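Following the same procedure, sequence and fold were stored together, as reproduced here:

>
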Amino acid sequence: MAFNLFKRKYTPRPIFATLGVDMHCHLIPKVDDGSKCTEESIECLNTLSAVGYKKVIITPHFQYPRFPNKEDDIVNRYNELKKQAQDAGVEIEIAGIGGEYRIDSGFAQRLEKPQFLRVAGKYVLVEYSLHQQMMGSDELIFDLQMKGYEVILAHPERYPYLNVQGMRMEQLKNQGVFFQINVLSLGGFYGEEAKRKAYEMLDLGWVEFMGTDTHNTMYAQALSDLSRDRKIEKVLEKHTFMNSTLL
């Protein structure tokens, strides 16, 4: 099955080579709202390579009850995709498996018997609801830290109830939570509000990681388009990110 859902108008530019690693994407087929088949995953991986990434860490959703994934099953599916990508001649290295864990009603139970798939074996990538924050979610992140985990909050620019100038976002930074913004936010993919907040956080020095959050070929096309944006290239030159520490 051919999965060329888009045709490039031009050759992507490898502007993300300085980052080296994409540490947030959803390319294991049929486990969440990301890739729907192996062909789509391979198409996206080829695009990540074309825009400069050398390695990718895949981070499927763990969200109760929508995506009730189990770590062991995800690892098996990851290994299967890795083999299929190698057989297809994909150049980017599929370098690791993590998870994007929703702070939800089932998260406290996860803390009782932790089995987190950690980014680079070190960081737990967590997310809030995009609509409204669950009561006590900040405290659950603190509990996670107290158990010795390093925590990365995924795309804080996308949460409408978290303001860059607000106390809650600053408190998260002060307690040592790492922030990861989505590259596509800088191009307005998620709207002007997320774009504005992403640039504000960059100006404050609050962004440690950049991720593509690639789900499918629509995201890959947007990433390819963004690779031609000189403003984004200047952002990557101006700011220092920790992606390269994950190599």
The beta strands are 21-22, 55-58, 61-62, 93-97, 100-102, 123-127, 150-154, 178-182, 209-211. The chain has a mean pLDDT of 95. The radius of gyration is 17 Å. DSSP finds eight helices and nine strands in the chain.
